[in-house]
Amino acid sequence: MLKHAFYLSLAIAVGLAVAKMFGGSFNLTSLFGGTTTTTAPCWLAAVAFKEDFNEGPRVKRVRHYLVTRFEKAGPGQRALMRIYRTHGERLAQIVSRSRLLGFANDLLFRGILRHAEAV
Are 112 and 65 in contact (CB under 8 A)? Predict the structure, then answer.
């Protein structure tokens, strides 16, 4: 239970930060309402692996993992994926222009890929 509270807090904090960064608003109720789509965008994975967004093999593995495992693990993960669906493409553009953010993104998505391949 504590783990889920942590993920939810993290998702809310990220949502607020991203909304502030892009001059938008953050609506907490929209995170938990509605249905989720069956595909996950993987803009940051495509940047990390330098692969095609639609056809990259590692991007496809990460996308499958995010939809089938990560997003279904709890409300915090669902909220984080909704934030990513909303702001991920713009975030990927920012990450692709920064060496430091690119390095951090590479580390993050290589870890996610390890989890995806272990399943």
Answer: yes
